[in-house]
Design brief:
single chain; about 15% strand; Alpha-Beta Plaits; about 60% helix; 2 domains
Length: about 170
């Protein structure tokens, strides 16, 4: 194998490793973003446990070849950057969506979220969701409400019977 091919294969293997390790992978269009904005985005992503990398589309496409995410290949048109979220899949999407609101140049194209390829509209919806802990507490309070009402009703009936017996 020629040295250039060996280097390309190393990069493909590296990308494949990032895709499989990451909780979220998001493809963004960044063309026109200045260096200071890109540095700011890198910092925000790092704080969220994510990183942004720029690879050639054909290398990223090759890395997708042996995964269940080959549908993502159709989004690899034009200059792209690839964001890998390793800690919290929701926070990575939130950081990108908030940054895209401030910097109209950045466009979310598609991504991998919870082992599914999703489009940009779904990414925006996911980014608008509250954190998982908040959703769980909301669900718990919804489940507790009927039980609390039942307990209050039983207590009231018991107190009423006790009062009528006296």
């Amino acid at each position: 194998m020629r040295p250039a091919m060996v280097e390309k294969q190393k990069i493909i293997d590296q990308i494949h490793g990032q895709i499989t390790k990451a909780k979220t992978t998001i493809v963004v269009q960044f063309q026109g973003l200045d260096v200071s904005s890109l540095s700011e985005l890198r910092k925000e992503l790092r704080d969220a446990g994510a990183e942004i990398k720029i690879y050639k589309n054909n290398l990223f496409d090759r890395a997708l070849a042996n995964t269940e995410f080959t549908d993502l290949s159709k989004e690899l048109i034009g200059p792209n950057a690839f964001v890998f979220g390793f800690e919290n899949d929701l926070s990575t999407a939130k950081v990108l969506a908030n940054f895209a609101k401030k910097n109209k140049i950045l466009k979310l194209k598609a991504g991998i979220f919870e082992n599914q390829v999703i489009n940009s509209q779904k990414l925006v919806v996911i980014a608008s969701l509250p954190p998982k802990e908040t959703l769980l507490s909301m669900m718990l309070s919804c489940l507790q409400a009927p039980v609390q009402k039942l307990a209050a009703t039983i207590k009231a009936v018991a107190e009423q019977k006790e009062a009528s017996n006296n």
